[in-house]
Design goal:
single chain, about 475 residues, alpha/beta, Rossmann fold, 2 domains, 9-stranded mixed β-sheet, 6-stranded parallel β-sheet, globular, binds adenosine-5'-diphosphate
């Protein structure tokens, strides 16, 4: 009998349980779509304090001993729907996922080593896992443990969602990992004298991918490789790029309960109501002026410094801006100061807020995303779905997913020619001109954006093929 392929999807964040960025969205929507396409894809994540606080009816499945460098740890395994939770209260029952008050937890290595080792035990208990799919450094050790423990029959995929975060730790912590000493070597998990967890995923995985074809090429260059470009070039034969999709059910202007009025490709009138509601939400003047939105982690990667510098000039053009984000305390402070300087024109919310994110996507005319690098980016695709014109640089996934005006048929975005303030302002000025003088072009671009397929259907199919190629699946299941 041919059974379904089974992939254990290991992730440190999963929507709706815990989220700091796009990884959480991917970790929910991709397994869902895989399931629809016939791939069994349970997900496993840590049981964080904020998950416990949700009060979900978690089913207790097992208590398992997990051996790491700190000794034997008893962890509990719980389940809710398709998601398994690894509970180790001393390590995960605390505020935040990776950090608190702007500082990374000093025991992050111990936390994610234990989690990764527990994922391996879970795969063993499940007994029929064909592939483990690990994501970013927090779960890269799963693959190292499979190797070290000589576990046969389970193949591995490692996805790089952001090469900038590699999990670098002091070498004195090596014993904590309980891995063979010879793995601490420049051709394996050592990087200039430090432990580098991401390297374990890249070196040991059967297949490595990133979240867009352009980023897969970029990270093999010194400019974008964050020091690992040489290693990535050396594994080019197993390295691919698969652009993400978005959850088109959760992000649907036709049925979104978090927006003021539903609208669709055929009738955009509700979008005007959403704009009015957004202006009210952020105490902006109720005027028909171009409204630029931004939702982001407030970090340099996303070009937030460029936006901050450009804000006075954008407002001088008669436009309005809404920013939702958190992160770098300096950026948070500067944005709050600017808001005081431009009441009624600039709306800022520092924090993580799902409702406001939906309101911005639906209510803004344009979405700013002048990233310096962007592995894939989800917000530009969410914007497209809501008929909000993305204004983006030409890097990584922004290059692959946005057809900008002047770059091809049926354009729906505007390109920022380089991550620089003047280039950003050029694009903003062009946006204001279209808004004021060419409503037909603006409407056509909105409709082009909304008609693009940004669902997971195609990318999930590519993942499915990747797993099958690794496993020669039909052969085994006969
Ligand atoms: P990254 O993963 O690099 O942070 P992405 O564009 O891939 O960037 O994904 C970001 C996701 O997180 C999107 O779903 C976005 O809407 C969401 N997000 C980011 N910051 C916030 C915030 N402050 N409030 C609500 N959602 C946010």
């Amino acid at each position: 009998m041919i059974r379904n392929m089974k992939v254990l999807f290991c992730s440190s964040e999963v929507t709706p349980y815990a989220k700091t960025g796009g990884l959480a969205d991917v970790s929910a929507a991709l397994p869902d779509e895989l399931l629809r396409q016939g791939v069994e894809c349970p997900v496993v994540m840590p049981l964080y304090q904020e998950v416990k606080a949700m009060g979900l009816p978690l089913a207790h499945l097992d208590e398992i001993p997990v051996l790491t460098g700190t000794g034997i740890n008893q962890v509990h395994v719980y389940r809710h729907d398709n998601t398994y939770f690894i509970d180790s209260s001393p390590l995960f029952d605390r505020m935040g996922l990776y950090s608190y008050a702007g500082s990374d937890y000093p025991d992050n290595l111990e936390r994610f080593a234990l989690f990764s080792r527990a994922c391996v035990e879970l795969a063993r208990i499940m007994g029929d896992v064909d592939v483990v799919h690990c994501n970013d450094w927090q779960t890269a050790l799963v693959i190292a443990y499979l190797k070290a423990l000589d576990i046969e029959g389970i193949r591995s995929v490692f996805t790089i969602h952001n090469l900038a975060y590699q999990g670098a730790f002091d070498p004195s912590l090596w014993p904590m990992l309980f891995l063979p000493r010879e793995y601490f070597h420049p051709e394996c998990m050592e990087f200039f004298g430090r432990i580098n967890i991401m390297k374990a995923g890249i070196v040991f995985a059967d297949a490595v991918n990133t979240v867009s074809p352009t980023y897969a090429r970029e990270i093999q260059t010194p400019e974008y490789g964050s020091g690992l470009d040489g290693l990535l070039r050396s594994v080019a034969g197993k390295l691919t790029g698969i652009a993400n999709g978005i959850d088109t059910r959760a992000w649907d202007p036709g049925s979104d309960p978090l927006i003021d009025k539903p609208y669709s490709w055929g009738d955009l009138s509700g979008k005007d109501d959403c704009k009015n509601a957004l202006q009210e939400m952020f105490s902006l003047d109720r005027r028909a002026v171009p409204l630029f939105g931004l939702i982001s982690r407030l970090v340099e990667q996303k070009g937030i410094d460029l936006v901050i510098e450009a804000i006075p000039a954008v407002i001088a053009l008669g436009a309005q801006i809404v920013v939702l984000g958190n992160g770098n305390p300096g950026f948070e402070r500067r944005l709050a100061e600017l808001q005081r300087a431009f009441p009624g024109k600039l709306g800022i919310h520092v924090g993580f807020d799902e409702t406001k994110a939906h309101a911005i996507e639906a209510g803004a005319d344009f979405f700013l995303m002048p990233s310096r690098f962007e592995p894939c980016g989800l917000n530009q695709m969410i914007s497209m779905r809501y008929g909000t014109i993305p204004i983006v640089t030409g890097v990584g996934g922004l290059k692959d997913t946005v057809t900008a005006y002047g770059e091809g048929d049926c354009p729906f975005g505007l390109r920022v020619s380089s991550p620089a303030v003047e280039a950003l302002l050029d694009a903003v000025r062009f946006a204001c001109r279209i808004y004021g003088q060419d409503k037909d072009l603006l409407d056509a671009m909105k409709k082009n954006a909304m008609s693009r397929d940004v669902s997971w259907a195609v990318p999930a199919g590519e993942y499915s093929r990747l797993y099958c190629n690794l496993k020669d699946f039909e052969e085994r299941s006969r």
